[in-house]
Specification:
The protein is of the alpha+beta class. 42% of the residues lie in helices and 25% in strands. The chain is built from eight helices and ten strands. It has a four-stranded antiparallel β-sheet with strand order 1-2-4-7, with no helix packed on it. Strand 5 and strand 6 form a beta hairpin.
Length: 323
């Protein structure tokens, strides 16, 4: 039976055009493996013009190129940095994708039946979830959003007030980023980082997945801990808004999911050691393919309900077709 949360997620995904009839469920606000919606040469070439514009604007700020300035040098340099580092990201992301794809092709030619050896940099022992890294990413996202608004706010202070009003409105929207950072910071302080130990490598479609979660700090504060095994397929989805402008984004679809829930009594009995997790992996689902763009992968989400800060962590698991 669908829960209220499931129905709300379905309604939101359908409303925003992310899910069409017949599509699998959409995982809203789910961490994606894809950094952006373009890869390879497309990404590298897309970044080149931004690099060029950033260099040109930077030369204007440094008076290397004579031009009439309508803003202070610090603001011109700031705008140059936005273009340059934005272009550098896409350029390096594209080159990294090209190199990774070439390495994948070479390895697959020698070991076509063992993709887990070259599809991803797996550790046979297990995988960690760094709450610190996640907290830092959310902090940088919040700071980046607010820094992006600085030029528009400056224009609003020295020109049309409409820019200032819009900057303030978008800054309020940025509170969402700060709320996500604060949630992750509380998670980090209370539970610390997490680690999922594999009891097999790789896991096979149609087999049984055994793993152990190293007990996070303050596990006795958790009222209920739910483990979800899911198969996730990412897609680049293009939607059109009311103004007919198209937007492409990474959307995570849930192809399969199974859950195991531990109550407070069961957790209390395991508080002094690792928490065992066991799932039966279906044979009719796709195997992991993290080298693909966009990828398909399997993960275990650990979600703990507690008073105050809840616990949440995501762990990639190596599920492949082994026969």
């Amino acid at each position: 039976m669908a829960t209220t949360t499931d129905l709300q997620t379905l309604a939101a995904a359908t409303r925003f055009g992310l899910r069409q009839p017949g599509d699998p469920p959409v995982l809203l606000n789910h961490p994606a493996q894809s950094a952006t919606t373009i890869d390879g040469w497309k990404s590298a070439l897309f970044g080149v013009p931004f690099l060029g514009v950033g260099v040109a604007i930077g030369c204007v700020a440094l008076n290397e190129i004579p031009a009439r300035k309508h803003a202070p040098d610090w603001l011109i340099g700031f705008i140059a940095g936005i273009f340059f580092f934005g272009g550098l990201f896409f350029f390096l992301h594209g080159l990294r994708g090209i190199a990774r794809r070439a390495a994948w092709k070479r390895a697959s030619a020698y070991m076509p039946s063992e993709p887990w050896l070259y599809d991803h940099h797996w550790s046979r022992e297990g995988v960690g979830f760094s709450a610190f890294d996640e907290m830092l990413k959310r902090l940088l996202a919040a700071l980046g959003w607010n820094l992006f608004l600085v030029p528009f706010a400056w224009v609003g202070l020295h020109g049309p007030r409409l820019f200032l009003v819009l900057s303030a409105a978008f800054a309020l929207f940025g509170l969402f980023f700060w709320a996500r950072w604060w949630t992750m910071l509380r998670d980090l302080v209370r539970y610390g980082n997490s680690y999922l130990s594999y009891e097999g490598f790789p896991y096979s479609l149609g087999g049984t997945l055994h793993a152990q979660l190293r007990t996070p700090h303050h596990v006795d504060d958790i009222d209920e801990l739910r483990f979800t095994l899911r198969c996730v397929q990412e897609k680049y989805v293009t939607t059109r808004g009311a103004d007919n402008r198209s937007t492409t984004q990474v959307v995570c679809y849930e192809l399969y999911q199974d859950t195991v829930t531990y109550d407070r009594a069961r957790l209390a009995s395991l508080a002094s050691g690792p928490i065992p997790v066991e799932f039966r992996v279906p044979s009719d689902q796709p195997p992991t393919n993290l080298a693909a763009t966009p990828p398909i992968y399997w993960e275990i989400e650990a979600n703990g309900k507690a008073r105050g800060a809840g616990y949440q962590a995501y762990f990639l698991v190596p599920v492949y077709r082994t026969s």
